[in-house]
């Protein structure tokens, strides 16, 4: 037996029914770069923002109990805290994303504190995430205000990116039963032993499919229109950005296929 992963191309060639599930994805491969190009694709690092536009803040409360741990807000929200730049992404690195017309930059911002009230009925306990689809020509260097309070594991170390275009396949939970069994049988015939689903790329990723390794499949639907949301970004713990989400796991950010301006969906694995 071997733990060598199967590629998406190998799986599609062996199980042709998988072809319709292929999605383009970009693996970001972040690496430490304290002096990264401000206008390049990156994680963390210097901020760019449209001139004259206020820097966004999170207006949820982030109180602490007597031991210094966040607790659920039951009184008036505390003062707003500035969002932190998580990622600056370029259209040339991920042309497969649902870029709104006229935009060529995506800035992913988050509040570097845990929240438990942003997913409605659905359990979530992690940072609040906002997306800004922008034009590079409109952006200038800015010095955003520091967050009023923050969890250190949500403050990314500056990294540049080595984007890699790949084709991605979903977890077997997303496949019809017959197709899922065909994938498993093919892997067994090849002597492949794996702990994750073959054909799905892991790591910091734009597009493609999310992993459901902790919870099994949980459909993420748009809270505004009810459409099944599409995977936009996987944030991975560890590595050079030195982040930790969930229990040192992954944060998945989803967007609505009808309108990317609808609030994002979030999931921790």
SSE pattern: HEEEEEEEEEEEEHEEEE
Number of distinct beta strands = 16
Dominant shape: globular
At the fold tier of CATH, the topology name is: Hypothetical protein YwqG fold
Alpha-beta content class: mainly beta
Kindly report the spatial arrangement of strands forming the biggest sheet.
12-1-13-14-15-16
Helix count, DSSP H or I runs of 4 or more residues:
2
Distance between the termini: 27 Å
CATH class: Mainly Beta
Query: How much strand content do the residues show?
Result: 25-35%
Number of domains: 1
Helix percentage: under 10%
CATH architecture: Roll
Radius of gyration: 19 Å
- Main sheet? 6 strands, antiparallel
Low-confidence stretches: 71-77
Mean pLDDT: 89
Describe this structure in words.
Strands 12-1-13-14-15-16 form a six-stranded antiparallel sheet, with no helix packed on it. The chain has a six-stranded antiparallel sheet with strand order 2-11-3-7-8-9, with no helix packed on it. It has a single domain, classed as Hypothetical protein YwqG fold, CATH 2.30.320. It has helices spanning 8-14, 177-189, and strands at 23-27, 31-32, 42-43, 47-50, 57-58, 81-82, 84-90, 105-115, 126-134, 139-142, 159-160, 164-168, 205-207, 230-236, 250-255, 265-268. The protein is globular, with a radius of gyration of 19 Å. The two termini are 27 Å apart. With 269 residues, the protein is mainly beta.
